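Researcher: Last one for today. Full complex below.
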Amino acid sequence: MKKIILTGDRPTGRLHVGHYVGSLKRRVDLQNSGEFDSIYIMIADAQALTDNFDNPEKVRKNISQVLLDYLSCGLDPEKSTILVQSYIPELTELTFYYSNLVTVSRLKRNPTVKSEIAMRGFNSSIPVGFFTYPISQTADITAFKATTVPVGEDQLPMLEQAREIVRSFNSIYGETLVEPKEMLPDNQACNRLPGIDGKAKMSKSLGNCIYLSDDPDDIRKKVMSMYTDPNHIKIEDPGNLEGNTVFIYLDAFCKDEHFLRYLPEYANLDELKGHYTKGGLGDVKVKKFLYSVLMEELEPIQKRRAQLEKDVPSLMEQLKEGTEKAREVAAQTLSEVKHSMKIDYFE
Ligand code: TRP
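Model: Here's the assembly. Have a good evening.
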């Protein structure tokens, strides 16, 4: 069986370092590994509209922002097909047929939907489009016969639901769709990078993100203001690593060789942590180190972005081409789906 990747992002803002360690970086590695037959990266604008339907301008303007983030991180349109969801109407048609296979109570139980409803304060006025987006996401995944979906932990219930729909479809209409499997980050810190305030997740509305395209000065300020251990007041005080944002970021970003370059008095992160918990190591020193580590990773990305920003129209042209190519694949799957469903009256 072919090995096919599909994953995507909602274009509701520029991408941040949480996206980067949780998924983007992995995608680039997978792309360059040559182990996959096809890779599809979707800008999920239709999904973004399910909870931003009253703000289409926000979605519109972030299409090129997300595209710039993708390309500056190293996604290569020659190797990965980058596409925009709304320009593939076949996905909507698949969603319509899959809707028959899902109950309202099953959607209500989906933990991701549940927590997003609570977060957005929808309560009893849940838009149908938002409520059913797991079905549409299943269409995204299955249209390209994806076997592998690189995502963060928060998307696990989506993948579970997608597999249920696939099994149900195949058992009713005959073997047609491919069951997808998630691929999670192998590093726990990467799975759930908190915001700089230590809050569970980076989110634009909380204002606690470090964006890939942030100005280095802003990144320095953000790092210096990061939440650490509130009881670590004097340098001599023993520090706590639990929930300590700076150390969680180091877990996600730091490699041994960074110490050689920026903090040679320690051999590795374990030694640094040891000193911190024992007492005698100040937050400022650790934060400065984190800033250097972060910038080493972000600088080449930012340089590439500056270059790419000079000609956005040609990038949009590439996106259009990717979308057209992807549409052909989705159309092929839709025709197989309809054939399995015996919708072939005029053939
Ligand atoms: N729901 C995903 C998120 O919020 C984005 C997404 C849309 C996606 N379609 C997808 C992820 C298909 C994986 C596969 O991050």
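The longest helix spans residues 312-340. The two ends are 29 Å apart (CA to CA).
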